[in-house]
Predict the structure of GTP-binding protein.
Amino acid sequence: MELIIPIHIISGFLGSGKTTLLKKALDYYKESGKKPAVIMNEIGDVNLDGLILGETVPMEEMLSGCICCTIRGDLGMTIQGLYQDHQPDVIFIESTGVANPMEIMDGVTEASLLMKIALKSIITLVDARHLLELSQKKSGKTFRLMRDQIRCANAIILNKMDQVSSGELQGLESIIREWNVFAAIYPTVYSEIDIQLFDELDDITWDRKQDQLHETEHEPHNHEHMHDHNDKKHHHSHDHVMVYTHYFERAIQSEAFDQLIKELPKEVYRAKGIMEFKDKESRFLFQYAYRQTELIKITPQGKVPNVAVFIGENFSKEAIKLALDKL
């Protein structure tokens, strides 16, 4: 069976520690005998971060624009290029600091209709001191963008904790919880975190492994033991903004699929995919939004998978997977 390549989006403002985390993740995967690949996006014409990473990792650069606006349409083609040319085991997208991850997420899920990839996480890095300063003003474009980057994260790395006090940490966690109740918060210095986090995020049962993850986590700085002890199980049991991608092994019954869509929980607010039904001749593109479903007959040019992608907040991926497996 063809493997599904996991994709992780690394988000956060310039200087928050994204490239440092990316380098650690790439080293981890290479040492594990796996092949990582990277898409790096910068506003300017020269990607200095790419020069830092060297030539041992397949990498595509998207310059002179932001994935979420001027060159968003190229994202799918960039992913496809890495997918076909290098067959990586995992793909990281490091977005420019001014990108809204929700828009990037939409671009990745569009690409998953054409190739076997699945968005597994959005990890937002936050400069602790920067967030403190912005939270005092509570206005402006930068403040709103950081809020959006935090809102849609599955995991939040609160970096540069050596620049704030332990008392300020509590205030920072309160600010983050106003915007994102469910994401795990990892206070760090120099983005130093157990990189096995990415393996955990690859797994649909990530929520069941959180206690094990914390028990084995290396703690390079004395701030790092603070992971929402007051209600850790609650905060770690679900993602916030979530994507579940399901690839079908064979055609299914259209009526059963239609009934499943009608019974989707309200937390799933968007779905899309390409379907093949046992009782219909054509293949179909389906779109689901605002509790309405649209099926459009298509004749794909080339080989594309049968796939359904579900986007929402705090829904059970396992419940949807079980229902789809029954089809």
